[in-house]
Design a protein that fits this description.
By secondary structure, the chain is α/β, with parallel strands linked by helices. It is built from 21 helices and 11 strands. The protein is about 45% helix and about 10% strand.
C-alpha cells in the first residue's frame, strides 16, 4: 500500500485528466484511476483481515505474495457498465461521442424530455444571472438550449443510420408528444421513415417487456441474481437459484439409505487421512468410485513407484539377512556388499515395471531409472550412517517389515477397528520405533496435522505396537527417499531422544516432541479419539467441498466447485 502511494499514480492520472481533451483517452484514464482505487481497496481489506487475526507481522516470500496478488486480480472485476451479450451498449447523450458502430438508436425523444426544460432552483430567476455580468457557461435558457442543440447535431456524425423513438399517449398531466427536434425534421422531410401509429401497448399487448422466452428468462435471471424481489418468477429460475445457494455453501450429503450401506466399524487409517484432507475427493474416489480420466501415460504413476520401493526395501533387508539382527552384528564386508545387492534387486523389479507401462518411452524410463538409482544410493548411505554404523543403536534391530496391524478404539459405547500396515518396526529391550517409507518429501506438524486428522498413521501405529510389545515407543518417523537423512521435522519423538545426545540423530530443532508417547497420554493430549470418531461419522454421510488440503493436480477439478472462501472455511474450521 505504501509503495502504491509513493508512486503517486493517482496524482499522475488526475493531472492527465485535466490536460486531455479526447473523449476516448479520458475514458481510458478514468478506467486506470478506478483500477488503482480498486487494487488499493483490496490490499487495505486484506491488511485489515491480517490485523484482525493478529498476523500483521507475518513474513511472506515475494513469490507467494505475487501469486496471491495475481490470483486476487484474476477474480476481481471493475464494474464499468452492464452491456448486453448481443452487442448493444447504452449511452447518455453526453457520452454518445464514445459510440463506435453503424446504427444508433435514440430513444425517449419526447417533448419535455429532450430538449429538457430549464429551470433555476429556489427563488433565483434568469434575470438574476445577467446581473453577474457576461460570463461563459451561465445556465440561461438560451445556453441550455444551445448545449442540447449541440448534443443533437453530433448524432449525425456518429453513425450511418439513426433511429429515433418516442412514446405517444397521455400521462397524468400532459399529452406525450414528439420532441420539437423530430417535428422539425419531419417538416423538413429529413426523416426517411415515419410511423406515428406504432404503439408500445399494441406491441406488448399488456404483457411484460420482453421479446422472446429466452429474453424473458435472461432479464428475470439478472434481476433475481441481483437480489430484487420479483412477482411470480419462473419456477425454473427459483429452483436454479436455490441450487446455486446450496452449492455456494459447499455442503454435500448422501441419502439415508446410502448412509446405512456406508456404516462400518472397520476403517483403514489411510482412509481417515484421505477424508480429513478433502472429503469431496474422498467421496468421489471411494464412495461414488469415479475413476480418473484415462490419459496417455507419460510417467510412472506415484502409486506404482511407491509399491515398487516398499517391495524393494523389504526384499533387500531379507536378502542380506539383516532382519532381527542387531545393527552392530552386521559386518563391514556385509555392509559393503549390500549396495550391489540393492541395485541388482532394483534392476530386476524395474524391468518388471517397464513391461507394465508400454506407452512410456524407453528414454523417459531410463531417465527415471537413473534418478531412482541415485536416490537408492543416498538412501543406503543414510541407512548405514543412522543405523548400521551407529554405535548408539548397536543393540537395536529391524523387528518387522510390512506388518499388518489393527487398533481397537473405544469411546463410550462406540468401537472402531482401525487397520493399517507398518513399513518397518525397530526395537531393542526397552522400546521401539515405527518408520513409514515415502517416495517423496514428507513433513509432520504434531500440533496441527494430528489434531485435524491429516496425519494419523504414526500415532496409531505407535499405539498398536505398544499394546503388542507392552513397551513405550521412542518415536515414529517418515523416511523420505528424497531426504533419507532427515529426522527432525518428519516424525515425533520423546524428549529424551532429541538434541545432542539423540541416538536417532534428531536435532534440538525438532518441534514434534513429547515427554511420553504412551498411548493414553498421547490420545488425550491431542484429542485423537474425538477426531477419529468425528471423521468416521462424517465418512458415512457428509462430503463437503471444504478441503484442508487442496491438491493442485486433483483429477476431480472439472467437477469440483471449491472457491478460495471454501478453502479458507475448511482451513479455519480445523485450525490450520
Amino acid at each position: 500500500i505504501a509503495l502504491l502511494k509513493s508512486l503517486e499514480l493517482e496524482q499522475h492520472w488526475r493531472a492527465r485528466m485535466q490536460e486531455e481533451d479526447e473523449t476516448q483517452e479520458l475514458k481510458k484514464i478514468s478506467i486506470e484511476t478506478q483500477a488503482l482505487e480498486r487494487i488499493t481497496h483490496l490490499l487495505e481489506e486484506q491488511a485489515n483481515v491480517l490485523q484482525e487475526r493478529k498476523l500483521e507481522d507475518i513474513m511472506l516470500h515475494r513469490y507467494i505474495y505475487r501469486r496471491w496478488l495475481e490470483e486476487t486480480a484474476k477474480n476481481t472485476s471493475l464494474y464499468l457498465e452492464r452491456g448486453s451479450r448481443f452487442g448493444l451498449s447504452l449511452y447518455s447523450l453526453r457520452e454518445a461521442a464514445l459510440f463506435q458502430g453503424t446504427h444508433l438508436y435514440v430513444i425517449g425523444m419526447n417533448e419535455g424530455v429532450f430538449p429538457r426544460s430549464s429551470q433555476l432552483a429556489g427563488y433565483f430567476q434568469e434575470k438574476d444571472l445577467y446581473e453577474l455580468g457576461s460570463r461563459p457557461g451561465l445556465p440561461t435558457k438560451s445556453y441550455t438550449r444551445d448545449k442540447q442543440d449541440g448534443y443533437f447535431r453530433q448524432l449525425f456524425y456518429l453513425a450511418e443510420t439513426l433511429t429515433f423513438s418516442f412514446i405517444t399517449g397521455l400521462d397524468k398531466n400532459n399529452p406525450l408528444l414528439a420532441s420539437p427536434y423530430l417535428a422539425e425534421m419531419k417538416r423538413a422531410q429529413l426523416l426517411t421513415h415515419h410511423n406515428s401509429e406504432y404503439r408500445l401497448s399494441k406491441m406488448l399487448d399488456g404483457k411484460a417487456v420482453y421479446f422472446s422466452d429466452a429474453d424473458y428468462l435472461e432479464k428475470t435471471a439478472y434481476h433475481l441474481g441481483r437480489g430484487f424481489s420479483l412477482v411470480s418468477p419462473p419456477t425454473k429460475l427459483v429452483e436454479m437459484k436455490e441450487r446455486l445457494e446450496r452449492l455456494k455453501t459447499g455442503e454435500e450429503t448422501v441419502p439415508h439409505e446410502i448412509t446405512e450401506e456406508l456404516a462400518t466399524n472397520t476403517i483403514a487409517i489411510t482412509a481417515l487421512e484421505s477424508y480429513a484432507s478433502c472429503s469431496f475427493r474422498y467421496g468421489m474416489e471411494r464412495i461414488l468410485r469415479v475413476h480418473e480420466p484415462e490419459m496417455i501415460e507419460t510417467d510412472v504413476s506415484p502409486l506404482a513407484l511407491g509399491s515398487l520401493l516398499h517391495s524393494l526395501i523389504e526384499t533387500f533387508y531379507k536378502k542380506i539377512n539383516a532382519v532381527r539382527r542387531p545393527f552392530s552384528d552386521l559386518s563391514e564386508q556385509e555392509k559393503d556388499a549390500a549396495l550391489p545387492v540393492l541395485l541388482d534387486l532394483f534392476a530386476k523389479k524395474w524391468g518388471e515395471l517397464e513391461k507394465s507401462v508400454p506407452m512410456i518411452s524407453r528414454f523417459d524410463l531410463q531417465l527415471k531409472k537413473e534418478q531412482l538409482e541415485k536416490q537408492l544410493r543416498r538412501w543406503w548411505a543414510a541407512e548405514r550412517k543412522l543405523f548400521w554404523d551407529n554405535e548408539k543403536l548397536g543393540n537395536m534391530e529391524i523387528w518387522k517389515q510390512e506388518e499388518p496391524v489393527t487398533y481397537l478404539l473405544t469411546e463410550d459405547d462406540q468401537s472402531i477397528l482401525l487397520t493399517g500396515k507398518i513399513d518397518r518396526i525397530d526395537r531393542d529391550e526397552n522400546g521401539f520405533v515405527v518408520y513409514d517409507y515415502k517416495s517423496g518429501q514428507e513433513r509432520f506438524k504434531l500440533e496441527k496435522e494430528m489434531k485435524n486428522g491429516l496425519k494419523l498413521q504414526l500415532p496409531i501405529y505407535l499405539a498398536s505396537i505398544e499394546s503388542l510389545l507392552d513397551k513405550e515407543g521412542y518415536g515414529a518417523s517418515y523416511i523420505s527417499l528424497k531426504e533419507p537423512q532427515q529426522r527432525t521435522n518428519n516424525g515425533m519423538w520423546i524428549e529424551s531422544e532429541i538434541g545432542k545426545g539423540s541416538r536417532f540423530n534428531v536435532s534440538s530443532y525438532c518441534k514434534n516432541s513429547a515427554e511420553t508417547l504412551e498411548t493414553e497420554k498421547l490420545f488425550q493430549t491431542y484429542e485423537l479419539k474425538k477426531t477419529i470418531i468425528a471423521l468416521s461419522k462424517g465418512m458415512r454421510r457428509e462430503f463437503p467441498v471444504k478441503p484442508q488440503v487442496c491438491f493442485q493436480f486433483c483429477p476431480y477439478q472439472a467437477v469440483c466447485r471449491v472457491t478460495d472462501d471454501l478453502k479458507q472455511e475448511g482451513e479455519m474450521a480445523n485450525g490450520l
